[in-house]
Design a protein that fits this description.
Layout (H helix, E strand, L loop, with lengths): L7 E4 L1 H4 L2 H12 L4 E5 H14 L7 H11 L4 E2 L3 H4 L10 H9 L4 E3 L8 H5 L4 E3 L1 H11 L1 H14 L7 H10 L3 H8 L6
Parallel strand pairs: 1-2, 1-4, 2-3, 4-5
Helix pairs in contact: 2-9, 8-9, 8-11, 10-11
Length: 191
């Protein structure tokens, strides 16, 4: 697909690495609230870090990666390497993310490292950097019923051990999503 009529966001490795955040972002995309995209290089980064930090689950990472890539149609951006060298970012190692965003017709890059993706640089390409808390809040405010249903399904999948809505909200907050947690607390009965 050359582009998407839906809002499109490139997910940086640092938002795909944490289990709960990855589950929320991919579930929001799978529910049609936005179009999530990433690249093989982004996948390599988060899975390499996961294998290094969690050697106990290293053998399960290939299956996890397969599930991630199947969760959203047309998620992998390809053929962006030609422009990496021409891009300027504070951390040159992040240029592949911006290149994938440009080629993937992204409206935003969702990242926890906003300092590495200056708004003025991204604006030159019509792309906005967004912290995952802000991005998720946008989904909750734009399509509240659909987004809350996503959180309800995320909670239902947490069976080992199961968790209450309040426990899920606490996990959301500990995951660096304080705005989303506050929003969800006011609607705890819906999740």
């Amino acid at each position: 697909m050359a582009g998407s009529s839906r809002y499109t966001a490139i997910l940086d490795a640092n938002v795909l690495y944490p289990n709960l955040l990855r589950d929320i972002l991919l579930s929001l995309a799978a529910s049609g609230l936005y179009h999530a995209r990433w690249s093989t290089e982004i996948n390599d980064e988060w899975t390499r870090n996961l294998a290094r930090n969690r050697p106990d689950i290293e053998s399960k990472i290939p299956l996890l990666l397969e599930q991630v890539n199947r969760s959203v149609p047309d998620c992998l951006v390809e053929n962006y390497a030609f422009m990496v060298e021409s891009l300027k970012l504070p951390d040159p190692d992040d240029r592949h993310v911006l290149a994938a965003a440009i080629v993937g017709h992204a409206d935003a890059i969702v990242t926890s490292n906003l300092k590495d993706f200056p708004a003025d640089v991204l604006a030159e390409h019509g792309i906005e950097p967004q912290h995952p808390d802000d991005f998720i809040m946008n989904q909750l405010e734009l399509r509240p019923f659909e987004a809350l249903e996503v959180f309800k399904r995320v909670r239902a999948r947490r069976r080992n051990p199961p968790c209450t809505a309040a426990e899920l909200i606490d996990m959301v907050e500990r995951s660096g999503l304080p705005q989303a947690a506050q929003y969800l607390r006011a609607r705890v009965g819906l999740i």
